[in-house]
Specification:
Layout: H1 12-15, H2 19-25, E1 26-28, E2 36-38, H3 45-52, H4 57-60, H5 84-93, H6 95-104, H7 109-116, H8 131-140, H9 148-165, H10 171-188, H11 207-223, H12 230-248, H13 262-280, H14 289-300, H15 331-338, H16 344-356, E3 363-364, E4 367-368, H17 370-373, E5 388-390, E6 394-399, E7 407-412, E8 427-431, E9 434-435, E10 455-456, E11 476-481, E12 486-493, E13 512-520, E14 530-538, E15 543-550, E16 555-557, E17 565-568, E18 579-586, E19 593-596, E20 612-619, E21 625-632, E22 640-644, E23 649-654, E24 657-670, E25 675-687, E26 692-703, E27 706-708, E28 712-715
Antiparallel strand pairs: 1-2, 3-4, 5-6, 6-7, 7-8, 8-9, 10-15, 11-12, 12-13, 13-14, 14-21, 15-20, 16-17, 17-18, 18-21, 19-20, 22-23, 23-24, 24-25, 25-26, 26-27, 26-28
């Protein structure tokens, strides 16, 4: 590194070049998405101060860049990559990996390297080196339109590339890339540069952004293990890893980012660091309660096999920031590899999940790690998945698992907000193994509440086109119950609940919202199994009830003396052939419209949607909604639903018998049809050979000689 000291006493006008020179120097920046960069390919350090930005000399004067990392000692971060023949044999043994290899070979430097053993560095913007990203930081200093997500990905990307491809690199390329990686690490380690450092109570902390930073610094310390700063960098990363566990992963393993994209993104970085530190004997976080919980969380939320794909496969629910929620999820196999010795059951469950999700590879900065983390020899065991609450996520409803006719609903009711859509209170639903009221069907990013299966409550004075219209709010599961016949979850979304994003401006909501969801179960998935949803609003605001279903055009039935019913035919061809009846028990009369949903064709490869339709219904202040979501095959008759208790309950007659449901925001008394009930929520399933009473919230439920006086279930 050359140091040039120059005292410049001048004005800005005398330093700026003439317009012709400026125009000639313009070139598209590597990562400045909508800005042009003005500057030479490289620059002297003295230029940083007076022309390009502000990386003060007192920061860079102690950088140690003339450090020679022994090339012959690598790969050692990922020793599995040493034996290329073994990697290729492994890929050949697993059909999913092999199909991906064949599809991506010509566009992946890594896959070609594993096959040929060769790599040639390409100037000026190598897709893996990140040199151009570091140069831009150096060129422009603080004003560079580079943020920590970029630098925090490209710097460790360089390090991982150097480690894996070391045997094929020329000594000149090795030294050059290592030097730039060191410079990038020093930039990442500059606390004054980045705004995302965690400060409790006063922060602009974004978990996945800051995870890029501290994990990248830690990776540098592990790669440059004999560098004078190495131990400090590793200690820095451990300090922030423990903060991540303490503040941004819940007891149930739920991360502070959306499930479908940013949390997996952060989990990759966390897992790499934990894996390498354990291998080096530095620290073993594999049994940390939060890391174990996070690894189980990916199993807890896994969907049924999704028939939208040619070969149905499970996936994580595509929640948050669509369409960046990709269905491929090789992290299950990372967990299978990591826990082979320390948690064999978790390893076997994770390997099962990886096989069920299609044996997809998982990338981190273009590196297909699963290619050498996966193993055909791992044991696979079906995990014991059931309905359950998940702190800071919400609730998972599940029945008939495992099968090709599973019932599933993920109910979003959590307190974390960072890169989520405005989606708290929404749900993602399958029935008889088919996606119906699904999330993210439009495949567009940053969607508002109107695009989700939820009640849309705007802020006072808000306009539909405002970004913060229907400002995201947090939620909590305030009650739940699980049994073989009925599952229940209640989510409460308080007007003052602004989630756990300390930097978000307090919301202006003036209305509370509570959503109760019941899953009324059947022993056979082809029998009457359905959801009941009650939405109770308390406040002065009007709202709108939204539902989006993967289906052909629905029919809206409204006639005097009947309940408003929307009949979704579903997608009337194999392998779908499941429709959804949406029956409104309350309100008694309503305005309802249907609207065909759009599909972003650019992201169609992620989720091959067929067609989807919204229904929307406006509500006045404090106007509740009680709806029955009843899935059925085309040949199955529609249920007959009768309203009782002025819309606080209903009787549902179907092929297996009849069910009586009460869902009321306040206690009621009901003494008809052989029922004696006092309370808020109860379910009677009067079915031949499979009847039951379930009291969920009340003082007494009696029917056909059976009585309950506390929460519980009894067979008829």
């Amino acid at each position: 590194m050359e140091r040039h000291w120059l005292l410049v006493i001048t004005t800005k006008d005398k330093v700026v070049k003439d317009p012709g020179w400026v125009a000639a120097q313009k070139k598209k920046a590597h990562l400045t998405f909508f800005a042009d960069r003005i500057g030479p390919e490289t620059c002297y350090l003295w230029q940083l101060r007076y022309k390009y930005g502000d990386l003060p000399l007192n920061k860079v004067k102690d950088w140690i860049l003339d450090y020679d990392e022994p090339q012959a000692q690598h790969p050692n971060l990922f020793p599995e990559a040493k034996d290329r023949a073994a990697v290729l044999k492994n890929i050949e043994s697993l059909p999913g990996l092999k199909a991906h290899f064949d599809r991506m070979y010509n566009s992946s430097e890594y896959l070609r390297y594993f096959k040929t053993g060769e790599y040639k560095y390409k100037e000026p913007f190598d897709p893996f080196s990140g040199i151009s990203c570091v140069r831009e930081n150096l060129d422009q200093g603080y004003p560079a339109y580079i943020y920590v997500l970029s630098t925090g990905q490209y710097v460790p990307g360089m390090i991982k590339f150097c480690d894996i491809v070391a045997p094929a690199m020329t000594p000149e390329d090795w030294k050059k890339m290592c030097r730039f990686a060191l410079a990038g690490t020093y930039i990442l380690a500059d606390d004054d540069y980045w705004q995302y450092t965690y400060v409790k109570g006063d922060t602009t902390y974004l978990p996945n952004f800051n995870t890029c930073r501290w994990s990248g610094i830690g990776l540098a310390g592990l790669f440059f293990k004999d560098h004078p700063e190495a131990k400090k960098w590793v200690a820095f990363s451990r300090y922030y890893l423990e903060k991540e566990f303490a503040y941004h992963i819940s007891e149930d393993g739920v991360g502070a980012e959306n499930v479908g994209n940013y949390y997996p993104f952060a989990w990759r970085m966390i897992s790499e660091l934990i894996r390498i530190m354990a291998d080096r004997g530095i620290a073993d976080y594999r049994r940390h309660p939060k890391y174990l919980a996070g690894s189980r969380f990916w199993l807890d939320v896994i969907t049924p096999p999704d028939v939208r794909f040619a070969t149905p496969r499970r996936m994580i629910p595509p929640i948050g920031n669509h369409p960046y929620s990709a269905p491929r999820f090789g992290l299950y196999e990372w967990n299978a590899n990591t826990f082979q010795q320390v948690e064999p059951d978790l390893a076997a469950w994770s390997h099962w999940a990886w096989l069920e999700t299609g044996q997809e590879p998982d990338y981190h900065h273009l590196i297909p790690f699963t290619s050498f983390f996966a193993s055909k020899a791992f044991d696979a065991k079906t995990p014991p998945l059931t309905s359950k609450p998940l702190e800071d996520f919400g609730y998972i409803f599940r029945n008939h698992f495992p099968s090709d006719k599973e019932t599933y609903l993920s109910f979003k009711a959590g307190n974390f907000y960072f890169h989520h859509d405005g989606d708290e209170g929404s749900f993602h639903m399958y029935a008889k193994g088919v996606p119906l009221a699904a999330d993210g069907l439009e495949l567009i990013g940053y969607t508002k509440a109107r695009s989700h299966n939820m009640v849309e409550i705007p802020e006072p004075g808000g306009k539909p086109d405002d970004w913060w219209y229907a400002n995201p709010r947090g939620g909590d599961i305030v009650a739940h119950y699980e049994s073989p016949v009925v599952d229940w979850a209640a989510g409460f979304f308080a007007k003052e609940n602004n989630r756990k994003a300390e930097y978000i401006v307090p919301a202006l909501h003036t209305t509370d919202w509570r959503r109760d969801i019941l899953l009324i179960k059947a022993k056979d998935p082809e029998e009457a199994e359905y959801f009941a949803v009650y939405d109770y609003l308390n406040g002065p605001d009007a709202s709108r009830w939204n539902l989006d279903v993967h289906s052909e055009e629905p029919v809206i039935e409204q006639a005097p003396g009947t309940l408003t019913t929307v009949r979704y035919p579903g997608i009337r061809k194999a392998p779908f052939n499941v429709g959804l009846d949406v029956i409104f028990v309350s309100p008694a009369s309503m305005t309802i419209v249907k609207e065909q949903g759009t599909i972003n064709k650019a992201q169609f490869f992620q989720f091959p949607q067929v067609e989807h339709w919204f229904i929307r219904s406006p509500r006045g202040p404090k106007e509740d909604t009680f709806s029955i979501l009843f899935p059925r095959r085309p040949e199955q008759p529609a249920p007959k639903v009768t309203r009782i208790l002025e819309g606080k309950g209903c009787i549902i007659e179907h092929q297996q018998g009849r069910d009586i449901i009460v869902m009321s925001p306040t206690p009621v008394t009901y003494k008809e049809n052989g029922v004696e009930f006092t309370g808020r929520i109860a379910v009677i399933r009067d079915r031949a050979g499979d009847g039951s009473l379930t009291l969920l919230d009340g003082g007494k439920l009696s029917y056909k000689g059976k009585t309950l006086t506390e929460r519980g279930t009894v067979a008829l």
